[in-house]
Amino acid sequence: MKFGVLVNEGPFTHQCSDSAYQFTKAALEKGHEIYRVFFYYDGVNNANKLAEPPTDDRNLMANWSKLAEEHGVDLVVCVAAALRRGLNDDILAPGFRISGLGQLIEAGIQADRLVTFGD
Amino acid sequence: MSDLPEIPPDDEDEFGVVKKFCYVNRKAPYGTVYALESLEMVLISAAFDQDVSVVFMDDGVYQIKKDQETDGIGIKNFSKTFRALEGYDVEKLYVSKESMDERGLTTDDFLVDVEVLDQAAMSALLAEQEVVITA
What is the DSSP letter of A57? Predict the structure, then answer.
């Protein structure tokens, strides 16, 4: 199946990003296709390369980047939501790109299922 | 709202596919950003000519409540944007009857015309959607 994934919360405060990451990873391992992961609301903070969680904790930003690197997953951050929260290309973690909300609508159209992870 | 997305011209059919998108709003309009950014998704979907429905349930019914005053909290009042939805051909607005009744509201309290659905009708509406985004 072809999945789109929507991530609506930032890392750490909520389980949201962890669940979305685990879902995406598991779907890929099962041979499904991830059309795109779209980051909205505080979810854009998952793309901040300046984040430095303690070394004995998981690093969500790095995990997402690794998925992009290993599986070519398209990680798209909403530009309006990102600018509102001080995230721009200068601090964007590897594998992410900033684009418009139309990319979310396109994911909804192209994917068989759009799965939302939020609060 | 000053930053409304531009409507692409009709001959620029971006994706060529129309899907049923439904936005389920469950949170109060102010106090968190969910309502505002959900509305931005609604507007973009409409700009891309999708078949958009918008549902208000739980505290989300307050999003379309008349007479919201935000000056005291220093937050932009975007409530009037709901009245602009019609201009984007977003006319399928639904309110949960149970959520409305629990809060002592009637359709007279709303900024826009809505269809009130009970739980069974709401369930049927959601079942026929192709993309459901809740916030």
Answer: S
CATH fold group of domain A2-117: Hypothetical Protein Ychn; Chain: A, (3.40.1260)
Find which of A104, A109, A117, A119 to mutate to test the B interface (most B CBs within 10 Å of its CB). Answer: A109
**Distance separating alpha carbons of residues A9 and A20, to the nearest angstrom:** 10
DSSP state for residue B29 in the 8-state scheme = S
Give dist(CA B81, CA B61) in Å, integer: 15
Residue B4: which of B40, B37, B42, B36 has the closest Cα?
B40
Where b means 16+ CB within 10 Å and e means fewer, B25-47 reads: bbbbbbeebbbbbbbbbbbbbbb
Indicate yes or no: pTM above 0.95: no
Which residue type occupies B94? Y
Partners of residue B41 in chain A, C-beta under 8 Å: 40, 101, 104-105
Q: What is the pLDDT of residues B11-50, one digit of tens each?
A: 445 568 999 999 999 999 999 999 999 999 999 999 999 9
CA–CA gap between residue B38 and residue B24 (Å, rounded): 9
ipTM score here? 0.90
Instruction: Note the pLDDT tens digit of each residue in A33-50.
Output: 999 999 999 999 999 999
Report if residue B125 sits inside a domain: yes
- Ranges of each domain in chain A: 2-117
Flag whether pLDDT at B1 surpasses 50: no
CA of residue B35 relative to chain centroid, distance = 8
- Cα separation, B78 vs B68, whole angstroms: 9
Which among B54, B11, B8, B16 has a CA at the least distance from the CA of B35? B54
Domain housing B37? 20-134
A114 → chain B, closest CA residue? B131
